[in-house]
Amino acid sequence: MATGTPSPSPSPIARYKLIFYTPLPPLEKIKSALFAAGAGTHPDGKYTHVSFESRGTTQFMPRASANPHTGTVGDIEKVEEMRVEVLCAGEAVVKEAVEALKREHPYEEVAYEVYKMEDF
């Protein structure tokens, strides 16, 4: 029996944080699609449908080449939106969640970010 260094514990599943912005009306539809893709489930499975949401204002101006869902080409538009953060356990889950987000989100260009999380 070896003494000294403990044996390494099994590597935990990679965790990702998906952050996106959406106008209020499609929020619940988008979250439902993400949760169906497995996002918002804690790696140990004890919690599901988990998200953090904060309200804010997004500003943008569509240019001539845009086909905006909201706003008018050449005019600055301000929209009340939600910032939503969702944990994704595993690379396959985050990829499927991003596909679901793009499929359900009304905007031509979906604003989202994905970060790989570290476990310290």
Features:
120 residues, alpha+beta, Alpha-Beta Plaits, four-stranded antiparallel beta sheet, 2 helices, ATP phosphoribosyltransferase, N-reg_PII/ATP_PRibTrfase_C, DUF34/NIF3_sf
Can you describe this structure?
The protein has two helices and four strands; from the N terminus they run E-H-E-E-H-E. It has 120 residues and is of the alpha+beta class. The chain has a single domain, classed as Alpha-Beta Plaits (2-Layer Sandwich), CATH 3.30.70.120. A four-stranded antiparallel β-sheet has the order 2-3-1-4. The protein is elongated and about 65 Å long. This is ATP phosphoribosyltransferase. InterPro entries: DUF34/NIF3_sf (IPR036069), N-reg_PII/ATP_PRibTrfase_C (IPR015867).
Give the C-level CATH assignment.
Alpha Beta
The CATH architecture term is 2-Layer Sandwich
* CATH topology term: Alpha-Beta Plaits
Q: Please indicate the count of domains.
A: 1
| Biggest pleated-sheet summary | 4 strands, antiparallel
Oligomer: single chain
Gross geometry: elongated
In which order are the strands of the major sheet placed? 2-3-1-4
